[in-house]
Structure formats: C-alpha cells, structure tokens
Write a structure and sequence with these properties.
Number of strands: 0
Shape: globular
Number of helices: 14
Number of domains: 2
Order of helices and strands: HHHHHHHHHHHHHH
CATH class of the largest domain: Mainly Alpha
Helix content: over 70%
CATH superfamily of the largest domain: MetI-like
CATH topology of the largest domain: MetI-like fold
Distance between the termini: 7 Å
Structural class: mainly alpha
C-alpha cells in the first residue's frame, strides 16, 4: 500500500511540473503584447520598453520560466501584469464563489441523478428507463452556456424566481445567485451519474447478497436504499471525481454567463488582457486541483475496496 501511495505521489508531482511548464509556454504563444494592451495605442516605444523592463518581460524566456516555477511552487505566485496586484490576493478573493458553485452543482447532480438512476435500474428497458436515459442524454448534449441561458430565461426573466446575474454573499444571497448556475452545472453532469449508478445498480441488484436480503423479508425500499445504493455509490463518486476537470471548465463558462466574480471570470479577463503570470497560475491551480482530487479518490478506494489492495500487492 505504501508503494502505491509513493508511486501516485511521484506521478502527481511529475504531471504537475509538466502542466506548469506547458501552461507557461502556451500562454506565451498567444498573440498580443500585454504591455501594449495595458498602455493603449498612444504609448511610445520608450514607455513600452520601460514597463516591460519593470515587469521583467524583457528577460530571457528561461529566466522568466524559472521565476514563474519558483513563485508557483513556493506559493507566492508573483504579481499580475495588468492589475499590478499580488496573484495570491486575487485568487483568495475569487476562489470562494467557484468552489461553492462546484459543490452546489455536484449536490444537484446527486440529488437529481440518484433517484433517476434507481428508477431506471428497477425496471431496465422499461418506459421510465428509456425516458430517463433520453432526457439525461439530451441535457448532457446541450452546451453548458446554452442550457444556462435557457434556465435564466425561464426561472429568471419569465418567472422572476432567481436573478440572472451577479453574486451576493450570505446564505440567502448564496442560494439566490448560485442556484441557477449550479443547477445548470448539475444537469450537465446528471447523465453521467444516472448511467454510472444505473449500470452498477443492475449488477448489485442481481448479486447473491441482495437476493439473501430479500429472502430475509426486508422491504424493497430497504434493500435498494440501504444495501444496493451503499454498494454502488462509490463508483459514481469516483466518476464525479474524474470529471472534476469538466466541472472546473463548466464554472469558467457559467461564471461568465451569470457574471459571478469567481476564478472563471478572472481567467477570462486574464486571457483577454494577455496577463501571462495570472493565466498560467490559474491553469496550474486548476490542474493541481484535478490531481489532488484524483489522488484522494484513489486513496479512498484503496482503503475501502479490497480488490484494489490485492491488485496493488
């Protein structure tokens, strides 16, 4: 088990380093000069050269890369080029709404997807099963931004239940402003939850220990709700953890659509302004989140599933 953990940690460090290098190099290939964009069209060559020197953009690329890697892996991150503010302060201000949006979206995915998966698994190939699979596939196939606009049109503009943009603090403000984007994110994930949990439930419901539970006189609700779901839900949790990258990408789009001041809107603004350090830092943090969540999920599976321990040995 210790060998497996050390191996996963080593792979995670290598992947994170490669991601940081790729992020830094790719953002520098994007056309445009952040200094020219920041100073405007009236800037003189002398002004541009002076600002580039102050920001360190006139140094060799390898020196800039070394500074970026040092800042990233020490947690200092450096300063934003265009905002002239420490990147750590910007991230601490914006990360809260993004994390809440992802967690709220996963909550919607589970609270909608689990009952639908159970209903589909109890009567496979029946009317309800076919309708559920078609409906969830339809929501999964919709572009996230389009689904968000449709929900905003219905629940925001027509019914007036939720605001269509902005972000408010506090419990009441959280539910008012994040419900629509979180519901959009959750609906885009429901198809994956339904298909994964339905498939696993079909396997578990046909197993011997479920038949034994029924033979002991347990009600169908208890058999399904306690025994079957408990033995099936781990696979669904694993799938959701694998989709953390999809969830982060979805928040970028939804934050822009609903004008939520989170990491997504910060990233879009940074790309628009060619803010190289800020874009690279946000990309690395998103990648690190995916790696850490995947690692935690693997360790939980290693602790709970004997088959994983046997495979590791």
């Amino acid at each position: 088990m210790s060998t497996y953990i050390l191996k996963r940690l080593a792979i995670s460090v290598v992947v994170l380093f490669a991601l940081a290098a790729a992020s830094f190099l790719l953002i520098h290939l994007v056309p445009g000069d952040p200094v020219r964009q920041m100073l405007g069209s009236g800037a003189t060559p002398e002004n541009i050269a002076s600002v580039r020197s102050d920001l360190g953009l006139d140094r060799p690329m390898i020196d800039q890369f070394g500074t970026f890697m040092g800042n990233t892996f020490t947690g200092q991150f450096g300063d934003s080029i265009t905002l002239r503010t420490p990147i750590g302060d910007l991230i601490s201000e914006r990360i809260g709404p993004s994390v809440l949006l992802i967690l709220y979206g996963v909550f919607f995915a589970l609270i909608i997807g689990v009952p639908l998966a159970v209903a589909a698994a109890l009567r496979p190939q029946g009317f309800a099963d076919n309708v559920i699979r078609i409906a969830t596939t339809f929501t999964f196939a919709m572009p996230t931004f389009w689904l968000g606009l449709v929900l905003a049109l219905i629940f925001g503009l027509q019914l007036g239940i939720f605001p269509v943009s902005g972000y408010e603090t506090g419990v009441g403000g959280f539910f008012r402003t994040l419900t629509l984007p979180a519901l959009t994110l959750g609906l885009s994930l429901v198809a994956m939850v339904v298909r994964t949990l339905r498939t696993q439930l079909l396997v578990v419901l046909g197993s011997e220990h479920i038949e034994a539970a029924r033979a002991r006189g347990l009600t169908e609700r208890r058999v399904v709700g306690v025994h079957a779901i408990r033995n099936s839900i781990m696979t669904t949790i694993t799938v959701i953890s694998v989709q953390i990258g999809f969830l982060i990408g979805g928040t970028v789009v939804l934050e822009y659509v609903f004008q939520i001041p989170g990491m997504g809107t910060l990233l879009i603004d940074a790309v628009t302004n060619r803010d190289f350090p800020l874009v690279a830092t946000i990309t690395v943090l998103a990648g690190a989140t995916v790696i850490v969540v995947s690692l935690i999920t693997d360790l939980i599976q290693l602790a709970l599933d004997p088959r994983v321990r046997l495979a590791d040995s």
